[in-house]
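pls design
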């Protein structure tokens, strides 16, 4: 299996790499349940979480994952970073990389931010914690660990994902993962919230939620990504959206006894999901949150394991070069 240098998206991972990360995450669940939640795996490693978009689950779980594996973890958010003073993303990235972290975890509203920074920061492993509507690989690994716990394997199962497919990096990453791991995807949304040619991912497309439910093994609900929504008329009103695409206990009955419910959070109760489902035994939403810490431990451990200890910063001059330069000025 090829060693992982960065984690940009599900698109770059092989089936073996995905399964390795999920299985390693599985083995870390136990540490998080112990009274003393600490292992020495990442002692001496430094992780910087750089978040330009809001986050509760992802940022906290990356922080806990690093700390529980004994790494030093620093968190920076857009409002407290120098980008709010006009510094470019690249300068911020190079500044942080000069402090020699092993891993930089980045969330940004622009698709491709991580690949862009990785091209310039040679010696730092980069993890995508969500880039615009592009990818969210650690959420999908989290979900796959949740499915592993529920069923053993997702292969042959049907996931029905419902809501703002157009703007959801979670939906996109699941569509990519499903092809690699052999689960079926049904996408359900009004036409205004569906990307054009979504069928090319090999999924079934529904506009009527009730028609998509029979035969579903998991119903995966999505929030409307208002922060990325440019079309003010994507749906008539929240009430009508809830009527057509909201999940409640009555509607869920059509999916059959064993169907489970997932949501990456944050939930908007009364919009895409009702409390009678969110708080029911069918809901695996808090399991997803728990597994998010374990999977991020697996990602950090894998990336740190594969990186050299000594990392010169590119463009930094050696003391001899500095003396030489000073000499030529005298
Ligand atoms: C998702 C995200 O940020 O893409 N949330 C998450 O990471 N848990 C989904 C969302 O914001 O709706």
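designed seq:
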């Amino acid at each position: 299996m090829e060693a992982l240098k960065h984690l940009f998206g599900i698109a770059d991972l092989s089936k073996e790499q995905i399964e390795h990360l999920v299985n390693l995450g599985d083995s870390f669940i136990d540490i998080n349940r112990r009274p003393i939640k600490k292992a020495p795996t990442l002692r001496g490693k430094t992780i910087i979480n750089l978040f330009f978009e809001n986050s509760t689950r992802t940022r906290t779980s990356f922080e806990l994952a690093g700390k529980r594996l004994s790494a030093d973890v620093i968190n920076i958010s857009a409002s407290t970073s120098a980008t709010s003073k006009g510094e470019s993303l690249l300068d911020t990235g190079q500044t942080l990389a000069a402090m020699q972290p092993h891993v930089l975890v980045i969330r940004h509203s622009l698709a491709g931010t991580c690949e862009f920074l990785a091209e310039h920061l040679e010696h730092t492993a980069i993890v995508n914690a969500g880039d615009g509507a592009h990818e969210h690989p650690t959420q999908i690994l989290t979900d796959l660990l949740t499915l592993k716990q529920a069923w053993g394997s997702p292969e042959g199962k049907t996931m029905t994902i419902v809501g703002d497919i157009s703007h959801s990096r979670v939906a996109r990453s699941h569509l990519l993962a499903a092809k690699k791991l052999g689960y079926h995807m049904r996408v359900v949304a009004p036409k205004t919230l569906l990307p054009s040619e979504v069928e090319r991912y090999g999924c079934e497309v529904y506009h009527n939620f009730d028609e998509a439910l029979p035969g579903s093994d998991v119903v995966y609900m999505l929030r409307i990504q208002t922060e990325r929504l440019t079309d003010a008329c994507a749906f008539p009103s929240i009430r009508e959206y809830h009527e057509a695409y909201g999940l409640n206990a009555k509607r869920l009955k059509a999916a059959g006894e064993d169907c489970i419910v997932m949501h990456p959070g944050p939930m908007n109760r009364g919009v895409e999901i009702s409390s009678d489902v969110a708080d029911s035994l069918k809901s695996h939403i808090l399991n997803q949150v728990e597994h998010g810490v374990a999977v991020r431990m697996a990602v950090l451990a894998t990336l740190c394991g594969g990186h050299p200890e000594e990392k010169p910063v590119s463009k930094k001059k050696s003391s001899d070069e500095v003396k030489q330069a000073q000499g030529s000025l005298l």
